[in-house]
Write a structure and sequence with these properties.
This protein is an alpha/beta fold and 453 residues long. The protein contains 16 helices and 16 strands. It binds nicotinamide-adenine-dinucleotide (NAD).
Length: 453
């Protein structure tokens, strides 16, 4: 740490899990320096094509089960092994593979770190990580160090230090590290990407996105299940806990890490009231849910400025009684598209004071992937088909030696909104610099294409 850091900043830094490599400028927001690296960038990383993708899975709870179902349907995959520290979950997943007519995968169920024994195997190419948030980075780092490509659920990391660990390890090992942001494969999101690439919105100016999803019911999971570990984040952190569903697609429209990058953010949280009220209503006074102090503001609003001067609003609220929304608004000099409900206005296609005909827009700009495999994807399921398209596309890229649609720099910068928003909230919404995880490579990295196959 450098001079100029006062005690208040130090405490915030420590609380947010930020280590060495941070530079502080107290009067004008906080600056975070880039970390030097001697390794090659993994921007656009392409590796030898794999004939068959041999998979090891860590975590077969609610989410892992859904992904497993897809891998059993996608050609060119083999499930070699499954690790889950809850033996019944691993056994059920193993049985599912056998019932579907596949080879019986080995299982690893002996505690929190038994997955490391699975990583010693030489017959696994890709490790899919579907565990609680705090495990994503350590497991992905271990997987890459063991010579495997790492794929993990969202968010990829919960501290800035973890973000850097992912970047450094992917660069050191030259292995893929993809955070599986499924929303980037939603029908409306891919359509918007298609339109952005075709220049329909003109020059992009502004985006708005969110994860607004009333998940208070998860607090009913006490010993197992998502709410058993996710509720703890509401007790220990105050910021945007889950930024990537809304932000991933907006970042792709805007070429973040491929021409532009996140420069700085400022963040503000509302009071944290909803979870305590829910606990009071649902649990006895001496229950752990009533003993806890919930500190994460029910609604967090973060504003991001990009290096090219664009603005992005990203919100998080999993506590309030409010209909689901990711907002998904993208605005340019020639038009605007917005979700929840779907609306669009494009110059030259009708008046711009009102929303125009969405159906016509979808007819004109539906994404090629949704046109070709939308029906199969909807049948395979997973958030209306987006999960299947994502998994299919990952396997397709691995089998064809193509760069993945999301790389480790995306994983790091989209996830970094979590810890950076915590730092800003804790310091009167002061602006906080994003690290440039690409170490300058964003200036020359090729934009993601339309994704035609
Ligand atoms: N992208 C999406 O739309 C979406 C939807 C739901 C969940 N998720 C994400 O998926 C991840 C998993 O969520 P979930 O709802 O399945 O949670 P879950 O609690 O149902 O499942 C997690 C599984 O990981 C296992 N596990 C925990 N620690 C482990 C360890 N050390 N070694 C091996 N196994 C371990 C647990 O036993 C459990 O079976 C989370 O990151 C969550 O945010 C994403």
């Amino acid at each position: 740490m450098t001079e100029g850091m006062n005690r208040r900043n130090f405490m915030i830094t420590a609380a947010a899990g930020i280590g060495a490599g941070m530079v502080v400028g107290c009067n004008s927001g906080r600056k975070i320096s880039a970390r030097p690296s001697i390794n090659r960038s993994v921007a656009g990383l392409a590796v030898d094509p794999l004939d068959v993708v041999r998979i090891g899975i860590i975590g077969v709870g609610g989410r892992g089960r859904g992904h497993l179902g897809h891998y059993l349907k996608i050609e060119g995959t083999q499930i070699k092994a499954i690790a889950d520290n809850h033996a019944p979950a691993a056994l059920a997943a193993q049985k599912r593979c056998v019932d579907a007519g596949f080879e019986k995968p080995d299982i690893y169920t002996n505690g929190d770190f038994d997955y490391r024994r699975m990583l010693e195997r030489s017959d696994i190419d890709a490790v899919m990580i579907f565990t609680p948030w705090r495990w994503h980075t350590p497991m992905a780092v271990d997987a890459m160090n063991a010579g495997k490509h790492a794929f993990m659920e969202v968010p990829a990391a919960v501290t800035l230090e973890q973000c850097w660990q992912l970047v450094d390890t992917s660069e050191k090992t030259q292995k893929h590290c993809m955070m599986m942001e499924n929303v980037c494969y939603g029908r409306e999101e891919l359509m918007a990407l298609n339109m952005a690439r075709l220049g329909i919105f003109g020059d992009l100016l502004h985006g708005e996105c969110a994860y607004i999803h009333d998940l208070r019911g998860q607090m009913n999971s006490i010993k197992r299940g998502t709410g058993s570990w996710r509720t703890l984040h509401h007790i220990t952190r105050n910021g945007n806990l889950y930024p990537t569903h809304g932000l991933g697609p907006i970042s792709q429209y805007m070429n973040i890490n491929r021409g532009d990058r996140f420069d700085y953010l400022t963040s503000m949280s509302s009071p944290a009231l909803g979870r305590a009220a829910f606990a009071k209503k649902k649990f006895p006074p001496d229950h752990m849910r009533n003993q806890a102090k919930y500190i994460c503001g029910d609604m967090n609003t973060t504003l991001i400025k990009t290096a090219l001067g664009r603005s992005v609003m990203v919100q998080h609220d999993t506590t309030s009684p409010r209909p689901y929304s990711r907002i998904n608004l993208i605005q340019g000099t020639k038009g605007t598209l917005c979700g929840y409900p779907n609306r669009v206005t494009i110059e030259g296609r009708g008046g711009t004071h009102n929303w125009q005909d969405w159906q016509q827009c979808q007819k004109d700009f539906d994404h090629p992937l949704w046109k070709s495999m939308g029906e199969i994807a909807k049948k395979a399921g997973g958030h209306g088909g987006m999960d299947f398209i994502m998994n299919w596309r990952m396997i397709y890229c691995l089998r064809n030696g193509l760069p993945l649609d999301q790389d480790v720099y995306d994983a790091a910068s989209w996830s970094a909104v979590g810890p950076l928003s915590e730092m800003s909230v804790a310091d009167r919404s002061t602006s906080i610099d994003f690290p440039d995880f690409t170490r300058g490579a964003y200036k020359t990295s090729k934009p993601l294409g339309i994704i035609t196959v």
